[in-house]
Amino acid sequence: MSLIVQKFGGSSVANAERVFNVAKIVTDTYKKGNRVVVVVSAQGDTTDDLIEKANEINPNASKREKDMLLAAGEQISIALLAMAIEKLGYPVVSLLGWQAGFQTTSAYTSARIKRVRTDRIEKELDKKNIVIVAGFQGLNRYEDITTLGRGGSDTSAVAIAASMHADLCQIFTDVEGVYTADPRKVPTAKKLKTVSYDEMLELATLGAQVLNNRSVEMAKKYNIELEVLSSFTNTPGTIVKEAIKMEKMFISGVAKDTAVARISVVGVPDEPGLAFKMFSRLSAKNINVDIILQSIGRDGTKDISFTVAENNAKEAAKIMEEYIKAVGGKQVLLDEKVAKISVVGAGMESHAGVASKMFEALYDAHINIRMISTSEIKISVLIDEEDADAAVSAIHRKFFDMDN
Amino acid sequence: MSLIVQKFGGSSVANAERVFNVAKIVTDTYKKGNRVVVVVSAQGDTTDDLIEKANEINPNASKREKDMLLAAGEQISIALLAMAIEKLGYPVVSLLGWQAGFQTTSAYTSARIKRVRTDRIEKELDKKNIVIVAGFQGLNRYEDITTLGRGGSDTSAVAIAASMHADLCQIFTDVEGVYTADPRKVPTAKKLKTVSYDEMLELATLGAQVLNNRSVEMAKKYNIELEVLSSFTNTPGTIVKEAIKMEKMFISGVAKDTAVARISVVGVPDEPGLAFKMFSRLSAKNINVDIILQSIGRDGTKDISFTVAENNAKEAAKIMEEYIKAVGGKQVLLDEKVAKISVVGAGMESHAGVASKMFEALYDAHINIRMISTSEIKISVLIDEEDADAAVSAIHRKFFDMDN
C-alpha cells in the first residue's frame, strides 16, 4: 500500500465538470489500494474575484486581512472536491491548512512552512478516508491564517509528501509535463521524460512556471520523487528526481520570465560593504535579488543594477530611494519592460560552448543582451520584454532543432 | 467605556458601498470611546452562490462538507469589512469563528454554541483593535468547522455579548425595528419601541424573522439588552429587554411563517407511548416539532399531524415512513403549502377574547383554520399558504386599526 500525494491547481478544479474529473483521478488512485492525500488550490476564478473585491474596497489593505480573504478560496474548492468524491461513493474528508497541521512563519502573503504536524491527516487516512487538504495556506504562531504566496500549493503538496515519507508526489497541471520550451510558443518543444531537481529548480525559478521553485527545493532536500502531469490527458508526465542518470541532451530547456524588473542605483559612493548594506535592506523586506551587475567605479561612485520579481519592483525601488537618501547617490531607475531568458541543463558545466551558442542565437535574431548571469547549470540573459518570445524561439531552434 | 457588540446581516454588507456604510457605523461607535466587537454574516449573495455550486456537484453532500463550504462566506465578509475599516484609518482585526473561541456541539449545519472562549477577542480589544468576528460558525470537539443554521449570526452576537457582559448588543438589519406586522404587507403596521424577550421569542419563532429565536433565548437567559435597528437609516430601533413595564397594547404583533410543513401520520396502532416513540425519532435527528394534533382513536388506530420547519420536512417524512414500517400504520402525508399565522402578546393571558377575535378575523376573510396551538403569550393557526398574507392583514386590522 503506497502513500500518494496528488496536487491539483486552480484550473483543474475550475468548474463542476473539472472537479468531477479530479474526483475520478483521485478515486482511481484510491481504488488501487493506495492511501491518498490530495492538495487543492482555489478554483480558477475565485482568487481573482476575491482580489477584485478587496481592491474595490482597499487596494492597500493589510497583508493579514488579504490572507484571511484569499484563504477562503481553497476552503471552497476542498469542500466541493470532497462533495464530488462523496457523490462517487468514496469516504473523504476535507481539511483546511491549519487542520492539516501547516505551521508557517508569520510573513503574511509569503509565509514559509515551518513544519507540518500530520497527526490529523494520518488519523483520517487510518479511517480509510481520502484526505483533501487546502493548499497555499497555514497558520502562524499568532494563530492567524497565512498564505504561502504564488504557487504555494505545490509547496504544500511536497511538504506533506516529505513529512509523511510519501512514495510519490504527483503535481497535476494544465500541461503534460516539463518541456524544453513553452510548447504554446515553440511548436518543436519536446516533453522531458525526467529532469533533475537542479534543472527543474532553475526552470521553475526562471518562469517556466510548471512548478513552484520552493516546492522543488523541498523535494530535493527530502528526496521526494515528483511527477508533473496533466489532469486533462491520461499520459505519463515528467519525473523530477535526483540526477542519477542524465538524459543525453545536455541542456534541458529554455525558459522565459517576464515577471521581472531591473533596478539601477546610479552614482552611489564607492565604500566597503556597499553591496551588503544595499541588499540587506532588501532582504529585510523579504525581497530576493537575482542578477546583479556592478559598474567599475568612477569619480568615487558606482552604479549597481539588479533584477527583482516584478511584484516586488516598486517596493524595492522605494527602498533604494531611501537608501540613496541615507548614503548619497544620484538616482534610482526602474525598468519593468524586461525579460529573463535562460538555458538550463545539468550537462552544461562541461560544455563551454553553451554560452556562445546562446549568444550567437540572440545575435542572429538581433536581440540586445542587457545583463548576463551564469551558474553551474544555467545561463540567463536579461533582454527587452518585447523580444522575449523571439529570443526563446531562436535559442530553442539553435539547441534543439535537428538541422542545427 | 462601554463594550458594544454590533451584528450586521448579509444584506448590510452585500457590496462595497454597503461594507463602507457598516464600517462608518462601527468606527463612529469606536470613536466615541467604546470597545467594539462586530459580528458579520456572509455577503448577501455569497451563501446562495456557494449553495448553488454545491448543488451542482452533489445535492446530497455530507453536512460536514456543507459547513466547510458555507463557512468560507463569513471569512470573505469579515476580511472585506476589516479592509474597509483599515481604509478609514482605524485599527482592526478580523477573526474566524474558531479564532474568536466559538466552541459548538457537533451537529453540522445546526450546531449550538457550547461556550465562547473570549481570550483572543479580549487581547485584541486591549490592543485597541476593533474586532470583527465571523458569525454563524464555530468549531466542534473534532476541530471541525460547524455552522449554527439559519440566523445563526444573531446568536453569535448575543453569545459574545453574554460571555463578555457587553453593555449593549445591537442587531442591524434591513428593517427599522420590530413591527406589529410585516410593514411591507401591512401598511398600518407600527414599530414597537420596546418588546419583551418572551414576545420577541414568539415573534422570532413564528417567522417574523427579525431576530433568530435562539439569540433571543440566550439574550433572555443572560439578560442582554438587544436593539434591533436598520443599518440603512439612522433612527432608533426596537429595544428587546425584560418585560418590566409593558406597553399598553396587549398584543405586540402578528407574525407569518410560510417555511413550515405539515406531516400527517395516518392509522398508527394506538399504544401507550405512541407520541413519545414517534417524536423521539425526530428529536434524535435534531428535528423540532411545533403544532401537534392527535386524532381521537378509531379502530385501535390514531392519526397524528404535526408541523416542522419546511427544510426538515422531507427528512421528517422519511423518518415517519420508516416509523410506520416498523410499528405498522397506513400512510404518511406531507403538505408543504401551509403557513402558520400567530398573534403574540405578553398581555394576552388575561384576555380570553384574543383567540375568538383572531378566529373571527379569519372567518370574516373566509380562511380555513387547519390546526390551532396556544401558549401563554401566543395563539397560532395553521392555514393554507395562499391565504397567509390575507390572514395577516385581516388579523392586524382587527387588533390594531383605530376603527375596531
Could you write a compact summary of the structure shown?
Chain A has 404 residues and is α/β, with parallel strands linked by helices.
Describe the protein in words.
- 2 copies of one chain form a homodimer.
- Chain A has 404 residues and is α/β, with parallel strands linked by helices.
- Chain A has 2 domains: 3-174, Carbamate kinase (3-Layer(aba) Sandwich), CATH 3.40.1160; 254-400, VC0802-like.
- Chain A is 36% helix and 27% strand.
- Chain A is built from 11 helices and 18 strands.
- In chain A, the strands form 4 sheets. Chain A has an 8-stranded mixed beta sheet, with helices on both faces. In chain A, strands 14-15-13-16-18-17 form a 6-stranded antiparallel beta sheet.
- The interface between A and B is large, with 38 and 38 residues.
Calculate Rg of chain A over CA atoms. Answer: 22 Å
Strand portion of chain A: 25-35%
What is the chains' assembly state? homodimer
Number of domains of chain A: 2
Largest contact between chains: A-B, 38 and 38 residues
For this entry, give a set of tags.
homodimer; 11 helices; Carbamate kinase; alpha/beta; globular; 6-stranded antiparallel beta sheet; 36% helix; VC0802-like
What topology emerges from the helices and strands here?
2 copies of one chain form a homodimer.
Chain A: E1 3-8, H1 16-31, E2 35-40, H2 44-57, H3 63-87, E3 92-95, E4 102-104, E5 113-116, H4 119-126, E6 130-134, E7 137-139, E8 145-147, H5 152-163, E9 168-173, E10 194-196, H6 197-205, H7 213-222, E11 226-230, E12 238-241, E13 253-269, H8 274-283, E14 289-294, E15 301-309, H9 310-327, E16 331-344, H10 353-364, E17 371-374, E18 378-384, H11 388-400
Parallel strand pairs in A: 1-2, 1-9, 2-6, 3-6, 9-11, 10-12
Antiparallel strand pairs in A: 4-5, 7-8, 11-12, 13-15, 13-16, 14-15, 16-18, 17-18
Helix pairs in contact in A: 1-3, 2-3, 5-7, 6-7, 10-11
